[in-house]
Write a structure and sequence with these properties.
The complex is a heterodimer of chains A (about 525) and B (about 150). With about 525 residues, chain A is α+β, with helices and mostly antiparallel strands. Chain A folds into three domains: about 50-85 and about 285-360 and about 475-530, FAD/NAD(P)-binding domain (3-Layer(bba) Sandwich); about 95-155 and about 275-285 and about 365-465, Polyamine Oxidase, Chain A, domain 2 (Alpha-Beta Complex), CATH 3.90.660; about 170-260, de novo design (two linked rop proteins) (Up-down Bundle), CATH 1.20.1440.240. Helices cover about 30% and strands about 20% of the residues of chain A. In chain A, helix 1 runs antiparallel to helix 2 (about 25-35), helix 3 (about 65-75) runs parallel beside helix 9 and helix 11 crosses helix 16 (about 480-490). Chain B has about 150 residues and is mainly α. Chain B folds into two domains: about 5-40, no CATH class; about 55-145, Cytochrome Bc1 Complex, Chain D, domain 2 (Orthogonal Bundle), CATH 1.10.760.10. Chain B contains five helices and two strands; from the N terminus they run H-H-E-E-H-H-H. Chain B has a two-stranded antiparallel sheet. The longest helix of chain B has 15 residues, at about 5-15. The chains are: A alpha+beta (about 525), B mainly alpha (about 150). The interface between A and B is large, with 80 and 61 residues.
């Protein structure tokens, strides 16, 4: 592989893994690389008033575009936003009953969900340290509720282990940690660590291992009741008579190792997956909607940008009606903030310099799939006591996300039946939506046999079929980023680019926000100096 | 690419393949294309190999997601180019190179398709959808372009 030129950038890969799974993979990867994506957001931006009458054309009413538009408007710029879709938000998007979505290739899905049910085809989480996007969510008055990433009572599952029976996250984690602690204790006592650990530290290490792994007095794991506090019991303790807890039987280390399930218990360890995480009440799309409302007179919808031309005095953008086509219209402004995804922008004639042009052409867009499945009843809560969180599987659907609202409702619920990236997502994009749904049902029913009786309707969004992004997110390779990222972000004449693709937090809304704030800060500086 | 980054990349692959945790994780010293998938347990990973054999199966299993079943592409805010009656396919090395390395928004597939698969799918596209190129790409030709 020495001539393999195409390894993705470590950061983007890490971030993407975080987006996908928040699994042990992320944890291992992060400790390996000592890297984590952090937001640069510190405080709300304050731009000084621009020269009177200065105008800015913002291309794209996604998160980056709307952050830029709102702040520039507030500073005193004359702002217009052109948006391809008939709605604000971009990838900030929820699908509700009654919505219609037509993908490239022509498949139209009419979402049949009941009122109150939804799926977020794009982002679904707001980690606590993504203070930029959280600032705007709060400023717009969008209500938040908790998002549980790690549910200890959800499942980890492999078709190749334990006869395909899903295991509780709690049990696998407790048994894995416990037996590692037991092994390490034994090793320490045998003196194998004498070189690495001082005599004094050895005693502390043994105590720590006992605590960390829930070992008994003889440093054994799960021979008695101690481990029950972690893994649960065969019979839980209770009140009154017949309330004695009965210990369960641990899963032996060799079986755990062979199962591969140790790889599925890392969720929550990764920085982006650590508590607290939030979600907007009523769907992530509420954020885009609130932005759109706040910017209402400024956004022109259904505008497909076909050319971006700049001169010494300003920028002229040509656009057609994205629904009907026709003769292009033009709009001019002094400056332009372009948040069109690089996948699309690379196809639009734009007279920027070679370095930016080259940079735009360096960003492949990745595959992702989300499938929403409406079930007649919340069997995961009623039958299996799973309230929110995520189950992980080795099947192509990768995970099942449980709805994190309306807990204990006797009504229906929408599961995230599939959320995958990479290979399984490409395969899904090549199939019609109804087959993607059928697959998700097939995989999910291996974990929840109730699926087949309870399923009502679904919707499947394969991001390479999304007409306005042609993929889920920009995905820099390490070399390309080193060589071209700064050129992508630099102001070129009167144009600056923004979006998650112009950030080091790819695929996260925080990347879009911090990119937009940085871009308009630099554009503003230039506008003040000419 | 520096060796350090290379090692990282390979480690990342190993880590990612751990996502399909039913499979035995790749080792950091594993080189070359990953082994062929045996079944669903092995293809849930980010860069796991596509479990398709033969040009038609690969086109229908992967490529048509963007280039569409009739290979005529699609148009939205941006477009997916048509591969039907495509004069750009005349030199076989061109499509091989694009499948391997990607181009603009199109992702690279060097990690998910082996030499045989890329040769097969390029040969399929170059002899279908109104394309009538007779020369064939061999796996060795693909290998040379990696």
């Amino acid at each position: 592989m020495t001539d393999q030129p195409l390894a993705p950038s470590r950061r983007s890969l890490l971030s993407m893994i975080g987006v996908v799974a928040g699994s042990a993979a992320m944890y291992h990867a992060m400790t390996e690389m000592a890297l984590a994506d952090t937001s640069t957001f510190k405080e709300p931006i304050k731009l000084s008033p621009p020269p009177p009458g200065t105008s800015v054309l913002v291309l794209g009413a996604g998160i980056a575009g709307m952050v830029a538009a709102m702040e520039l408007r507030d500073a005193g710029y004359k702002v217009t936003v052109l948006e391809y879709n008939g709605r604000p938000g971009g990838r900030n998007w929820s699908l509700y009953g009654g919505d219609t979505y037509t993908e490239l290739g022509g498949f139209t899905q009419k979402v049949q969900f009941d009122a109150g049910q939804y799926i977020n085809p794009g982002p679904w989480r707001l980690p606590y340290h993504h203070q930029g996007i959280l600032h705007y969510v709060n400023r717009l008055g969008v209500a938040l509720e908790p998002f549980t990433q790690v549910n200890y009572n959800a499942y980890v599952h492999s078709t190749d282990a334990f006869d395909g029976k899903p295991q509780r996250y709690r049990t696998v984690q407790a048994d894995f940690y416990g037996q590692i602690a037991e092994l390490l204790s034994k090793t320490t006592k045998q003196g194998a660590l004498d070189q690495a650990v001082t005599k004094q530290d050895r005693e502390i290490l043994l105590t720590a291992l006992k605590e960390w792994g829930a070992l008994d007095a003889s440093h054994q794991y799960a021979t008695g009741l101690e481990a029950g506090e972690r893994r649960g019991y065969a019979t839980d303790p209770g009140g009154g008579l017949n309330s004695v807890p009965i210990a369960g039987k641990r899963i032996e280390m060799s079986d755990l190792l062979q199962s591969g399930l140790w790889s599925a218990i890392g969720a929550g360890l990764a920085y982006d997956m650590q508590s607290s995480i939030f979600q907007p009440k009523g769907g992530m799309g509420q954020v885009g909607k609130a932005f759109g409302k706040a910017l209402e007179p400024l956004i022109q919808y259904n505008c497909k940008v076909v050319e971006i031309k700049q001169g010494d005095k300003g920028v002229e953008v040509s656009y057609t009606d994205s629904r009907t086509g026709g003769t292009p219209k033009t709009m001019s402004a002094d400056w332009c903030v372009c948040t069109i995804p690089a996948s699309v922008l690379s196809q639009i004639p734009m007279n920027v310099g070679g370095p930016m042009k080259t940079a735009i052409n360096q960003i492949p867009y990745m595959a992702a799939l989300k499938v929403g499945l409406q079930m007649k009843r919340r069997f995961w809560e009623q039958d299996e006591q799973i309230y929110g969180g995520v189950s992980y599987t080795n099947q192509p659907n990768t995970m099942i996300g449980y709805p994190q609202w309306d807990f204990f409702s006797k009504g229906k619920g929408v599961l995230l039946g599939s959320y995958c990236f990479g290979t399984p997502a490409y395969i899904a994009a090549a199939k019609p939506p109804e087959e993607r749904i059928k697959d998700a049902l097939e995989y999910g029913s291996k974990i929840h046999p109730q699926y087949k009786d309870e399923f009502e309707c679904g919707v499947a969004v394969a991001w390479h079929r999304v007409p306005w992004t042609l993929g889920c997110a920009g995905f820099w390779t390490e070399e390309a980023r080193a060589q071209h990222y700064d050129n992508l972000c630099a102001v070129d004449g009167r144009i600056v680019l923004a979006g998650e693709h112009a950030s080091r937090i790819p695929a996260w809304q925080e990347g879009a926000v911090t990119s937009a704030l940085d871009a308009i800060t630099r554009l503003h500086k230039k506008a003040m100096s000419v | 690419m520096t060796i350090r980054l290379l090692t990282c990349a390979v480690l990342m692959l190993a880590t990612i393949s751990a996502l399909d945790f039913g499979a035995v994780p790749a080792r950091a010293d594993t080189a070359g294309p990953a082994p062929k998938a045996k079944g669903p347990a092995n293809f849930a990973g980010f860069f796991s190999p596509f479990p398709f054999e033969g040009g038609e199966a690969i086109y229908k299993g992967v490529c048509q997601g963007c280039h569409m079943p009739d290979a005529k592409g699609a148009v939205g805010a941006g477009a997916y180019p048509a591969l039907a009656k495509d004069e750009n396919l005349e030199t076989a090395a061109y499509p091989v190179s694009i499948v391997l390395k990607g181009q603009k928004a199109m992702p690279f597939f060097a990690m998910q398709l082996d030499d045989q698969q890329i040769a097969d799918v390029v040969n399929y596209v170059r002899s279908h959808f109104g394309n009538k190129y007779r020369d064939k790409v061999k796996p060795a030709d693909v290998k040379a372009l990696r």
